[in-house]
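Kindly review this protein for my students:
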Amino acid sequence: MQQTIINKLAAIEQEQHIKILFACESGSRGWEFPSPDSDYDVRFIYVRPYRFYLSVLDRKYDLNFPINGDLDMYGWDIRKVLQLMRKSNTTPFEWLQSPIIYRQDDDFRNALWSLSQAFFGQRSNIHHYLGIAQGALETMANDSEIKIKKLFYVLRPLLAAKWCLEKESIAPMTIGPLMTALPAHLQKQVRELITLKSTAAESFVIKVSAELKTYIDNEFARISEASTQLKRDHFDADKLDEFFVTTIKQYDH
C-alpha cells in the first residue's frame, strides 16, 4: 500500500500542478492503534506556484478526493495550514508528528514544526480534544459497552487534553507517550486493548472495565472544569505571513 500511496501523491502533483511538501498518515495507523480493517488516512500539505496567490479572485485551498477502497486522501494548501495554525488548530500539530511519513521535505517540516510551538493555545487545544472524547463517549451503551474504535476515540483525545493541561504544550500524536499519564494498572489494560484492537474489527463491541470508566469520567470532569479557568489565546499573524511568503517563493515551480 505504501508504494500505491507514493505513486498516487506523485500523480496528484502532476494533475493539480502543485508541489507536495509533506504527506503522512493521520488516522489510527498514525496514532499506533490500528485495526486490521483500518483505512489509510493520508494527509498532505502542498504549495502552488507563486502567482496563484496573487489574485483578487477567491481561491480553493484544499484538495479532496473520493475514498477509494481503504484509501482516504486529502490535502491542504500551505496558506490554509498557516491560517489554521493561527487558530491553534490541533490538526497541523498532529500531522507534523506522524510516525508514518509518505513524502517529506525535511527543511520544510522542521521549520513548520518549530513555528507551530509559538501557536499552542492551551484552552483551545483542550476543548478540541474534549469535544472529540465527548462525541465518542455518547456512543457508549449501558454505561460500559462501546465499539473498540470509539473507545480509543475517547482515550486518546482525553489523554491529549490531560497532556495540554498538565504539561502546557502540544500533545503527542501517538498513544504511547500519552499513556504515561495513566496509572500503571490502567496502562496495562490499555496495552491489552491495543493488542485486541490489532486483531478485531473496528466495529467490535467491548465492555469497559468499571475502573477505566471511572477514570475516564473523573478525568473528563476535572479537565473540563480546569479548562474554564484558562485564558483565551490570541496570536498575531506576522510570523505566519513571513513563513508563507518565504515558502511560496522558495518552492515556486
Residues 2-119+234-250 form a domain with the Beta Polymerase; domain 2 fold (CATH 3.30.460). The first strand starts at residue 19 and ends at 25.
